[in-house]
Design goal:
Chain lengths: 100, 465
Amino acid sequence: MSSITPPAKEQVIQLYRQFIRASSRFNNYNFRHYFLRRSRDAFKESKDVKDPEQLHNLLSKAREELQVLQRQSSISQMYSFDKLVVEPLDRHHRNLNETK
Amino acid sequence: MHCVKNIIKVSRPLIQKRLLNNSAVNPATSASAASTISNKIKEELHKPGQDIIKNAFQVNQDNGTRPIYLDAQATTPTDPRVLDVMLKFYTGLYGNPHSNTHAYGWETDKEIEKSRKQVADLIGADPKEIIFTSGATESNNMAIKGVPRFYNKTKKHIITSKTEHKCILDSARHLQDEGFDVTYLSVNEDGLIDLEELEKAIRKDTVLVSIMAVNNEIGVIQPIEEIGKICRKNKIFFHSDCAQAVGKIPIDVNKMNIDLMSISSHKIYGPKGVGAIYVRRRPRVRMDPIITGGGQERGLRSGTLSPPLITGFGEACRIIKEDMSYDQKHIERLSKKLMDGLLSMEHTQLNGSKQHRYAGCVNVSFAYIEGESLLMALKDIALSSGSACTSASLEPSYVLHALGADDALAHSSIRFGIGRFTTDEEIDYVIKAINERVEFLRELSPLWEMVKEGIDLNSIEWSGH
């Protein structure tokens, strides 16, 4: 047990940033908002975990999930649909509307 | 009173035509626009053919046009994490899971057994008791037709309720044609069945009781555990359609004494076209299969299994089990916000029990408005007036009828389905939009005018033809 050193704080912060970046790349409004919320809450939930072994497990699970998120946000960018009524249009689409 | 009838006859088609002409009905963005609605209507009466909604609601040009999805009871979006698991079966792992002579078959078979365990874990069952099907409709058909047909020499009676899903009621009707007796239990105004009535309905030759856990139209949760106890005591098989319940409320087949259970994948963010039926092994439930052939799935459901769909289903079960409390907290919060926002309007009512309900399904009636015209006025929100199967016809909901609602109330009801991916922003938009459109439609309604003048609508003698 004692042989395992706890992961560095920087490691966790970097992973968190990667989660947020991958989540915000989702083209789909609902998926983007869900994964941003889920990622934030998941890191918040485990912020008091001190046990090194448990931390390592959490971290390796998170790394796998990050890969899923990165793959899926890329796929989401390949298939885009109209924006929702609660979602602002991209600037150039807005300009198109005005010229119409 | 003759004139009253005439106004209604004239105004209904007019409203609908106006609404249909407006594909992009957006809410008023300025308060002044909303306040001038009634003036506009008066003007409009003198200028037929002009689009009043265009004047009343300003389209927000800066936003998109795709409607908000609020129909989680019909189906849910496939979770990206689910798709991620499925993709490898469309790109490399294409073996037939029943091919046991080579590695291609072994690898997909291994993944399917993993998924079977994930589905079983969600409901507290043994993996061997899970049979994959094409969806909850097939599972329901299997249970309702399969069990009575197997025991038809000695038992001739089944019990179900009036608010069940159409596929249960229709299967039961088929059995009646085959000579079985079916008792349809009625429900109280909350939508719950009476346990005493159930006990009284049980006969010596009763073989099956089928009661759904969460109603798809009103979200009412039936007392499944108590029903299970009654069935076990009387040695009757208990089937429950849990398509809307699994993953949303805690379900345990052993604690609840459920012998057969239908599950659907696309209601829990999985792929469409797959589902499962739980069939208890101890005490063993025997049934006649509907689909026969190669003898897959213990001979109860032949046909090659679809690895991509089933692994997607399994992953969806794993996620919803892990995140059940997290998701439910979010859904309950949004549901409360929505209910508070809608029920604060006058002459609205929540359909179904207030206590025994699943938060993600909110069914509200807006008096003096027709549900279908409200839905047309709400093109920017994807909603339904009831189950997707019956929304194509303009028939009022049979579920609300069973609750004792009259035609007018059943016609004016709308179902809101909240899911994992619904956001606060969307709920705020919906509350605002509904408030404005309901007020707008009521302004057009002669009935509403009379109600405001204090005329009791029941006292009116409507002229006949």
